[in-house]
Structure formats: structure tokens, C-alpha cells
Amino acid sequence: MTTERILIVGAGGQIGSVLTDALRQNYGNDHVIASDMRDLGAQAGPTEVLNALDGNALDHLVQKWKITQIYHLAAILSATGEKDPMWAWNINMSSLFNVLETARNRNIRKVYYPSSIAVFGESADRDLTPQTEVLIPATVYGISKVAGENWAHYYFHRYGLDVRSLRYPGIIGYQSMPGGGTTDYAVDIYHYAVRKEAYTCFLSENTRLPMLYMDDAIRATLELMDAPAEKLTVRTSYNLAGMSFTPAEIAASIQKVLPGFQISYAPDFRQAIADSWPGAIDDSAARADWGWAPRYDLDAMTHDMLSHLHP
């Protein structure tokens, strides 16, 4: 029986809901506590209502459940954050500091903190962005993630806190709807396709972005957290890649299965955000350090998405 007790902060989001199930499969339902600002309803394991801005409440949960690991997923994403930058900054950073300080003071064994390709900006190499690159992001979300990566690095070297992180590309999954990101179109498009509705994309047809299927994203997270600490050479955040494609290419992939699917393009404010991001990511450090390798390409993802979403 595992002695680990895992607290997930922000378990109700796109990644959190799937990661909660995966962790419960690995550690047992009673050993994974899912928390969110809203009531998560009946689940296979324990849940808590938690405002991550309340450091005392977080500390109370850590003591109550004898937590040994924290997965901190709560954040305001790129497109939503641009509507109110200071609000997004406050939530993203204050919640992170609460997690880091609680983890330091309560001797938490490991902390997981997701970062994003939003840390990259116009100065980065867009063709194959390296692990070590200039980080001048174009959004408050990206700015907060750069700051978070550096604080993770600081807490590891200053206090010995084992913080681990991945720079997620766009995450695509059938399990839940997206939460306000610039890559949301790549989830929405499948829902329109199975309803036999035409889709209007908020990015231009040739906007190439790095993406990752949810199954690969969850597996990468678990593999990183299980990796021996001495194998990890990156203490900011690891580049992570799966596939890169454009809206036109994902539409063509869907049309192989659903020939009648139609798409049009009406770029909005999210186009400028996407234009500041890389088209492909060099994740050789993750491959070398802990054996990362994606399993899904575009067509394999399309078949799996449509098989799960088709009414």
C-alpha cells in the first residue's frame, strides 16, 4: 500500500480532471485528494473545496490529509488572462507562492507545477524552440509561467524542494471542454465535427502550433514525477512536444473520417498570441533525461477523439 498522499489544486480543469483519475488508478482512490474552487461533486475519491489564494486553507488541507505531494494546476490561461491581466497575474502567482511555501514548511516530497509554451515570445526560434531559449512572452499568462519556472528553480536550489515542471503545448482531449486558452480551437473543432456543424476557427488556416494529445500529456506528467531526482537536469521546466499542425491540417485529418466537415477562418485577438508562440518544440532534454516519447500523431489523435465523441 502506497504511503503517498497527493493533493491536486485545480482538479476541476481540463487537465486536472483527467490527471485525478490517472493518479487514483496509480495510488488508490483514497490517496488522491481533488480540490477546486467549486464543489467537484461525487467522485471515486475525496474532494475538497479550496481557494488556492487562501494559504491558511491550503496549509490546513495539507495537514488534514497528511499530504506528501502537491500538483498545482490552478491558473488563468492565456486568452482569458488578457481580458484582465492584473487579476490573472495575482491568481497565478499568489496561488503558486502559497503552494511553494506550504510545501517548504510542511516538508512535501514533490511539487508539480505545469508551465506552457506561452513562456516563449517573438524572439524565440519558432522552427524548433530549444530547451534553453530567451523567454520574452507576449501574454500575462506567459509572464506568470516564466516567473513560476524561476521560482521553482529557486525553491529547488535554495530550499531543496523537489519541484518538477513541463512546458505543455496545446492539450487536446475528449474528456472535458477547454478552459480559455489560445489552442482551444483544436478541441472545439472535434465537437463541431461530430455534431455535423461547420466550424469557424479563430486562428488563420496556416497557424502552426505545437500540440499534445491528453493521453500523452498525462503519461508525460506521471513519468516526470516518477523519474529519479538525480536524472533530472532541468529545474525550470522541460520542453514537451507531441505534434505540430495548422487548423487546415487538423480539418483535413477530420475530413478523412468525416468528409462532409467544413471549416472557415475568422482570426481574432488570439491570432496575435499564437503568432508569438513557436511552431515546433525541441524536447530532446526530456527524451534524454527521463525517456519521454509521444505515442499519438495527428491522425491517430483524430480517430481516438472522434471515436469517443461520436454520438
CATH topology of the largest domain: Rossmann fold
- How many alpha or pi helices? 11
Number of strands: 14
How does the major sheet shape up? 6 strands, parallel
Structural class: alpha/beta
Identify the strand order in the major beta sheet. Answer: 3-2-1-4-5-7
What Rg, in angstroms, do the CA atoms define?
19 Å
In CATH's first tier, which class of the largest domain applies?
Answer: Alpha Beta
CATH architecture of the largest domain: 3-Layer(aba) Sandwich
Question: What is the 3D form?
Answer: globular
Q: Which spans of ≥5 residues are poorly predicted at pLDDT below 50?
A: none
Q: Count up the domains.
A: 2
Mean pLDDT, rounded to whole units?
A: 95
> How many angstroms separate the termini?
40 Å
Fraction in beta strands: 5-15%
Helix and strand pattern: EHEEHEHHEEHEEEHEEHEEHEHHH
Which bin fits the share of residues in helices? 40-55%
- Report the oligomer: single chain
Q: Identify the CATH homologous superfamily of the largest domain.
A: NAD(P)-binding Rossmann-like Domain
Structure keywords:
311 residues; alpha/beta; Rossmann fold; UDP-galactose 4-epimerase, domain 1; 2 domains; 6-stranded parallel β-sheet; 3-stranded parallel β-sheet; 11 helices
Characterization of the model:
By secondary structure, the chain is of the alpha/beta class. The protein has 2 domains: 6-170 and 213-239, Rossmann fold, CATH 3.40.50.720; 174-211 and 243-309, UDP-galactose 4-epimerase, domain 1. 41% of the residues lie in helices and 15% in strands. The protein has 11 helices and 14 strands. Helix 1 links the parallel strand 1 (6-9) and strand 2. Helix 1 (14-27) crosses helix 7. The longest helix is centred in the N-terminal third of the chain and has 21 residues, at 85-105. The model has no long low-confidence stretch (mean pLDDT 95).
